[in-house]
Fold these 4 entries.
Entry 1:
Amino acid sequence: MQIPTKLTINTVIPLMAVLMIGFTGIGGHDLWTPDEPRVAAISLEMAETGDFIVPRLAGAPFVEKPPLYFAAAALMLKIFGPLFGATAAIRLTTVMFGFGVLLMTFLIARRLADKRTAILAVGILATMQGFVQNFHWIRVDAALAFFVAAAAWCFVEIYFGHRRKLMPAAGFFVAGAFLSKGLIGPVLAATPWAGSLGMRIWTGKLKEFILRHMGMLVVFLMVSGIWIILLYVNGGPDIFREWFWVNHVERFTGQSDLGHEKPGAPLYYIVQIIMDGIPWTPIFIYWIVSTISRGIKNRTISREDIFLCVWGLGSIAVLTLPVTKRGLYLLPALPAFAVMAAVGLKDVIPRWVEWYSGFWTVICLALMALIGCLPLTATLLPAAIPNDVRQVLIDFSPYHAMAFAWLAACMILIFRYRRAVSTEYFMILMTTALFVNLLGLPLKAIDQEKSMGADIRSFVNQIPESQRGRVAGTDFTETMRGVFYYYKGWKVPQINDGERIFNILTGKDEDYDSMIVQDPEDPSVSSLYPVKGEMATGTHDEHRFFWLGPIK
């Protein structure tokens, strides 16, 4: 068999990793909590109403996030929904933003180093655990990551390539980051901006520096300001206050009660980048330590190294300041760490990296073998695994066969063609094989447990369509409001007034004559009022719903 040249291999392997991992697992499974039911429902409603200014969740304004991701997903629904189904079309939105991030990473690394390093950086990023996980999930952070990376590319071209004409484009991409996630978008885009400036802020005249950035600032204010004005006009002052004050000021200080508050956790994102970077974490840590040590010893450090350190480590520092913390917030900084790893492997592969590559290869092969052999190890599975999940794991399927096929291909590669592929690209190959398998059978097993679509449809079908107009709900979470709308198109009105709820359940209300109660605080509520239908859904059936009729 004729082996392609090394240059061809070094180009084809990252491209293969990008395509295979990117498109594997985006269809064939349901919406998952957290986030997906809410984001998908908002996107669907935006596609149906055509209102691209004020996002709505089951009819109610939802301005926790600006509308850019929802609008993009709504367009994908219009184009690809009839072909692939709504869920796959929305998830494809995330994947396309992911491809955009990979493209920008390539352009950044090519400017900072060379084309070979850029290709390697793409392969490394595409096979990072955090990247694979987050770009297969319906979340607005995918759009944020793309626009931050695009803005970073502009800054690199402006300050390293002297292409000052890209200042307006930088302003446009920073505005895109703002319209994806709010004020945190420009803040995260400011870290690569600061890194690309380096010492150049003080080497030029202040007036020249300000004028140089006016184009960027004007474009940013114009694009962002248009939506802000339209939000105030269309949504009103109360909606505007909720968007700005509650979701920015109070979230930053931990007063918003929107969840994910983690005060006093300074190491949170350090632990997160270690996990997100798997299997490349040791390599970019090696680069960081080597770069800092070299800078201290020689008292010199390149502007390219400053840029990567400020972007990556600066993002961790910036995200650590707010009380609200989530692992996915680190997603826009992952390209910086991927480029670090690629630059660290640019010239000479350290001996320990070769040993580490062998260790990682053994892990990949073992996990693929485990997936393929699950039907033979049914008795070894923990008893706590639900029966429906167990059946997916042990009933022989194409997923098990695929694991064996990948395992066989990897073994052939190892024993016959290992020398044709250098260490870093071999790691990309092994990691690609592993993730493709993890996005197969394990994904189906998890979906068996997390899927809520069938439960929601069955529950709603218990309620005659002619009666649904007189049914209200109370204390629905955002997730449950989303799934009722997404799966059945039902905007269940929410009643939170205790007296009115009592009137409904006792047949005294003019508008409603029954209630859907989610996770009632008083377990006896289902014994006090007639139960006309019930449902348990979610992971381990943690959410319970009762359709309660009035006392006759």
Entry 2:
Amino acid sequence: MTPLRLLPRVLHVAAVLVRYRIDDLIDEQHAMRPLRWLRALLPRRRRTAMLPRGVRLRLALTELGPIWVKAGQVLSTRRDLIPEDVADELAHLQDQVAPFPGAEARAIVEESLGKPIGELYASFDEAPLASASIAQVHPARLPDGREVVVKVLRPNIVANVRRNLELLDALARLVQRWHPQADKIRPRDLFDEVAKTLHNELNLQNEGANASLLRRNFDDSDDLYVPQIFWSHTGEKVLTMERVHGIPADDVIALEKAGIDRRRLAEKGVRLFYEQVFRDNFFHADAHPGNIWVDPTRTRDPRFIALDFGIMGSLPDQDQYWLAENFIAMFERNYRRIAELHLEAGWMPRHIRVDELEAAVRTVCEPYFTRPLSEISLAEVVAKLFSTARKFELTLQPQLILLQKTLLNVEGLGRQLDPDIDIWSVAQPVLKRILADRYSARHAWREIRKRIPEWLRIAPLIPERIHDALEALAEGNGPLQFGERELEHLRVLGRETQRRILVATFGGALLVGAGLVFALGDRYGIWPPIVLTIVGIASFAAAWPWKRAKE
């Protein structure tokens, strides 16, 4: 869409914001200065002007439509960017819209799955159970009698989302141009995050795959149940899933009547968060109470039921490590370590003084630790840390948006279930146990075994690569210029490196073989001295080249 065609819609959004008196928020964020002249042209609602600014923004986004509601939900997680009162209000945004006719849903199912509805299901109720901006859900029954729910994409939703994303993109560019801290906020990256989330939700096969993986991660778990996906009845526009029955996790009265142990349930919720994030690196990122139920059949050993798998999160390995170490350092009040981790992770420029950053972190955290641990909000501490870190040129990490949102949801739900829960004492041992396993010698050995075939494949290619690089340098095609003496030294070094790598690879292969012999020796009666001899040869072969290198 051209900028000229987009202009009327941009003006419409600006008009809605001005009409709802979002003036003070616009002024504070410096993001929409070019549009301030609209204030003199548009009428303002006197009743609306009396409402808090967060409520006014929530009402404005609701009027703009479902896609804007989703954008507001994402924005509510960025408490490092927007005032706390606004973030709290945006967190209340509800993604609910009027349902579309059941006859249209039936037609979409038949078109997507290529069969009449009567062949696919023994029964299909055209009255939806729930309706949202992207899809709605219908109850049904398979031919074998099993109860299911059928999620169906809304008609024309792809075109609608595309139009709204173009508009959001235009506004992100506006913020990028006019906001004085655009390089830190990174509005284009925030837009990309929202766009990616919406595009994933537009393909229900993605949601089915997410549910299948989460179900596999918690197979036979006493803490979380994930409904089964029926792939024979699933496509891009249709998702058929096992129907489950439960109590919404925030319905405290219903949980009390059912006799659910709420304290144990709250502790399980905290453990599930850390297991999903740091053990599996795959977490439910839309864990509000509407998507998290409680199994009413289990009272003494309660279990959660997960729903709606359109928004899932994962982190790059490096960010996962830095984040885990930050949590551990925070649990142990090691402020120096927190400061060092922020610099090592590249979240801040290297010129920032670690002692000054440490002092700022201490100033934020120490007041919290004067309270009982049960009263400390981990999500609040993290938000304050990010806000303080902005003064030290913190580069915000958009990939952590979903994680921040999930942390807020989990902690809020935990305190609803058990107001006295000590989230810190529950989380710390779980995280330490997960990290001890993840970064243990056994885990490292498993990773090495996975990579040995790749190393063996690459090793014979190394001499050729070195030779090609030297040829390029000799012909003057490389980025550096070397004389004859330097080239000869590089050739000798290349041959020596090749020899060391081949010997070390051979030694590594012997170590793998020795491990297998050691593991199977008792079963097949292999004499122990033979095992020790193989291990000794392998260790010498693997270590010798590096010993020679030091000499």
Entry 3:
Amino acid sequence: MSERAWTRTVNEKALEPGKPVVAMVDDQEVMLVRLGDRIAACGNKCTHYGGPLNQGLIVGDKVICPWHNARFDVSTGTKDSPPGLGGVPAYEVKTEEGDVYVRPREESGESKKRESDGSSVLILGAGAAGDTAAETLRTGGFKGTVILVTQEEDAPYDRTVLSKGFISGEAKPEWLPLREKNFYKDQKVNLVTRKKIVGFDPKTRTASFADGDTLAADKVLLCTGSVPRKLSLPGSEKKNCFYLRSMKDAQAILDAVKDASKAVILGASFIGLETASGLRERKIDVQIVAPEKVPLATVFGEKVGERIRRIHEENGVNFHLGHTAREVTGSGAVDKIILDDGTELEANVVIIGAGVMPSVDYLEGSGLLENGVVPVNGKLETKFPGVYAAGDIAMVPDVYGVGSVRIEHWVVAQRHGMHAAQSMLGSSEDFREPPFFWTMQYGNSIKLTGSTKEYDEIVYRGDVENDTFSAGYFLGGSLKAVSTIGRGRDVLIGGELLKEGITITPQQFRDTEDLEELLG
């Protein structure tokens, strides 16, 4: 093997502590940063959507992506937290006569030497949590059998894109898979599709499937996600009336809107609003019907919720808030929606976004369920040893003062999957990642970190009306969450404040020019 060559990048005087600089090395962007008395270097593109890491936040020896909060070790390139899909390239660094040189770190090749040690992990559900758990087991050195099971016909894909870029047409079908074609084969992960689970015995860690098969393992991760909440709405079985959860659902909607001009969306949830944004990109007339007075007010508060409503109205959406649908009419296919006050809305397509429910029917009678969810401890392990739960179905102890929480967010599920796998590998750490969520509507990236389950004060930085603001949510003077449009760095910093348990006052949040000063 030829010796790896060093490449001159920048003069070390260009590197101020904690201030990343980008250099080109073999046509690749490399981020360099001074960390105390040393210089570290890694690839500059996040492995999620390619976000520029140099525009993110440096905390200790980690960099946080400015787009969706993935976190990487700057020295080793290792993924520290999703939504990154694997690590970034890592580089060795040396200085000579004041210049900084880098070269790619030599890969260990450990993953190619794996031989099964006879142990096994069964992952039930191949969404965000399941896919990330499988990756983490392998990168963490697990040499046993890994079986990843999904009832869908597709390999794991990015479900968040369905109601965002896929509906608008920006994202192509080939963009949706999370991994390269041979990823699971190369990682020796046995991916099993079209396998519907119908039962699970936690004592024997055995899963039963609709085709009569059973699978058992030494350790099991339950991460079957959610299913759409169905409305008891007369006529909702008609053609062109849809729920949106899977890739198959999204494709059916796209096929229907090719010949449609009018769509009615029932529900002003994230799914409903993102779908509205995507349909407006296609010049479809969109009307939204929802029982609440202000969209997303329960998540962001009324002021931000009102701004989100106006963003949609500015883009041509008509709302019917404070109302519900009474009936779907039409001969075969839908033609109208009749509301509770008798209003009739013409529609070629109806999309129902009434929320989701944990997919846990197969756990009835197992002893794992409490109030329809699966309680876990800080290691994401259930009361049955060797059985873990993650994602939408898991009720997780909360360390931020708002009680145990169940959160239906993609990145949260990924982080659950990573943590559960690390627990299986022997980690004794409790899960303490603050929740993170983002939604994209008409080019506006709306982000939230922390929990708005309980708060008694909202403090604003910037201008809500001009879509350049962040909002801090406080309970008893203690920060619980940060949301933003246009000030994404505040959410990065807010997440670190929550994670590290750093106490700040509402006045500090409002008046501190750069919140990074509060990290200490």
Entry 4:
Amino acid sequence: MILFSIFLFLVPLVANAKDNGYLAGNIKSVSGNPLRNAIVKIFREMQQREIVSIMRSDNRGSFKSAHLTPGTYFLEVSRQGYQPLTTTKFAIDPGQTTSLNIILQDILDLISKEDDPRNWDLKTVLRSTSDRRLIFRDVPGENASISESGVSPFYRSGAMNIASSTSSGGEGCLLRPQTSHNGVSSNFAFAEPTSQHSRMILSGQVDFGNGAFWRVRDTFNYRPDNSHDYKVSVGYGRMNQGYLGADSISSEILSQDSDLRESGVQTLAFGLEGNTKLLDLLAIKYGFDYSRLHYGYSKSFFYPSIQILLTPSKSWNIQTSFTSQRVSDIDTIVLPDGELLNLSEPTILTMIGNQVSMSQIRHSEIAAQRTIGPETAVEVAVFQDNTRGPGLPVMITTITPLESKSNVVQMNENSFKQRGARLGIKHRITERLSGSVAYVYGDTTSISSLEELLSSEFLNSNLADYMQQRYQHSITGQIDAIIPVTKTSFLATTRWYSGNSLTPVDWFSDRMDMGTKSVNFEIRQSVPLPYFIGTTGQWDVWADMRNVFNQGREVLPAIDGEVVVNRNPRSLRFGLSLNFR
């Protein structure tokens, strides 16, 4: 009876898979030669740079995708020695195969039009070294080929970025993952294949500024086929004492462990993750993480996570998730194959003076998205956040006629819940211009109105007594544009709240760490690197401006002045990113 029920459930799903389409094509050079091992990335046209599939061309320069949900897409094709190419949008129709013929331009044709018959011209030398043939054309190269199982092989690659940030506040505070940071931060990841189906990934983060923090993570990645992917990782980190405010760590804490004088705060992490796909209908991501913090005494968190994505039809998808790991700009890095690595751990680590704390926000959500035509999508979601620990800190500035001073404080160690609903609309206006609007109604922690004037010192010391949970409205608008000539990406986001909250509304959907009612800007400029000695890569130059006009400021009048509560200070962040293989 059970098997019969399962059969009845799967029959309509398999029948629906027949409504999917395919993409096939051929990649050649200008001279007509087929190009093997070209990387083909399929992007969903509705969502900016959402990679649907990655594959390589075979020995004949041909490629073919798996099932694709009908809609509009575009391709990005790259290969060593050739200029990358991004196609215009194309449509995938139900039950049909769309064919594309791609021609790549030799990047070294810009140097000379003809090869030197002696094999000594610059173009020949550069091309030959990139194929690992020295300068002899008749020696076969060492390019990897597609595996017989159809799985794209792993290859050696890496990515790194470095950023310098400055903000209007944040004295004596180190927060990981941090939303505003003074100083220099860097992320990196290196992938080394160990077999046709496995690789090791070494990743890490380093921060210097208000804090001195580093952490590394070693991950073993096993991918038996395109439908299964498994990762096991272990990580270690330290928050050293060489930062502003570290001298205030009490001798009582330090005396408990003599090693603490040298190592400061130590973190240990262990994680397990699995991904499974069933046809094009069901995708499941599951795992667990364990974090341990030691700073004279130890504190640990264990948290499972699961995410289920169901696509019952070509225009609907339903997603449910339970996780503590949040995706944000400052904690992610992209490998050359398009894979996004989230380097953060599902724990918020905060050090303020002599106070070190861990917090965890467990996020659960269920969302449904409906595609309306080829250019528009509508999403409806409900979510809930449970916080263990003090959560995110806030900055308090006391202003009196005699002085103005700022300090960072944390909330009480009380668990609290936030819940809400989200309605979002995404629309692609043109091929290189898109926009979205999201409305959220949820409860947050805010400061209640004061019935009488109090001294600034009293408010500063007893602010937690005036906090309360209340529901607020939030509207976020976003414009995403790409300048065709320079390939410059520009993203502008504005957010409005009905009040100023101390905790963010729908924090897990805010990858930009905006957090307040304000305006954010992102600018990205890609600069391809020349192909040399078997290595190809790309620089990204970028700048971010966060919370330009408002910083979530709440001004509380006092007898001797005023107290300003600022949850997310204004900041400017700029830097460079590099990925290579």
